[in-house]
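PROTOCOL LOG
Step 1. Enter all chains and additional molecules of the complex.
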Amino acid sequence: MARHQLLGGFETLLLLAIIRLGDKAYGVTIRKEVLITTGRDIAVGAIYTGLGRLQRKGLVDSWQGEPTAERGGRAKRFYRITADGLEVFNHKHRAMQGLLDGLDLSAEVANG
Amino acid sequence: MDNRQTPHNPLLSLFIGESDFSEIEGDLLEEFNQKLVESGPEHAKEWYRRESFRNVWALATRPRTVHIFGSTALCVAVFRLMTPIVFHWLRFEFATAPPTGIGFLLITLFEIAAMLLTGGAITRVWKDHGRLVRLTFTCLYLLTVARFVLFSGISGVWLSEPLHFVKDQVGLLLVITSFWVGSRVIETFTRPPTHQTEAPRR
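Step 2. Run joint prediction.
Step 3. Record the structure below.
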């Protein structure tokens, strides 16, 4: 069952960035999206390590684009979320919301 | 793009065997070219230098790379432990023989054969990572030799016996060269044909 797969914090960030970027999700755009939305400047090599992990879990899918001159003749690899990926993400999101329901975090902090 | 401005980090090319190496290099070049237009060559080059080193670290800490470092370190350790054992066994075997240098020849042959086999075998295991394996082996082997020289007092022997020094340097060179030859031979024979269509990643 896909929904029982564990999703780490970094993997969740990558999945969210891929969902937000739609069909424009590849190394450079994912890196920039994570940088803009979270302020975390992650090396592209680390992004691909995470993407490889997600791909082995079957949560994302990839395909190769055309080589371009500005990339020194190297092709882009685009990523998109799979149905399993979406299910796992939604499951995690619901679980987080369930845990947060009824909690007043500002009061918790004030009470120490 | 002007080829004179294309940056290159030789350390990054150690990881050429990684399946996503081409994408990483392409992404770095794409961002470099964007920075070149936005902020000029100095800033772009500085960005590329910093970013390529960050990527070297990211690639060096991948589990697969850590396994390559570990298994190469194991090869160095086993070889460094085996050599004195073989050396002492040969000295025992040839204790009564006249000093014709056959012991040195045999130990040299053992080192060459062992390193040819080790270099070939480990390159066969870590396909496409031959460059990384060879560099790791060389660095680790030289480190163990440096440690031996510093703590065993061999430098005193070398000063009093120059021939001993020459023999040891030849041995060191043979060990590293044999490992490289074994590794390169296997790499050449197991290299996949070029112009191959890309296999699906799933």
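Step 4. Note key features.
The interface with chain A takes residues 1, 6, 19-20, 22-31, 33, 51, 54-59, 62, 198, 201-202 of chain B (CB under 8 Å).
The two ends of chain B are 34 Å apart (CA to CA).
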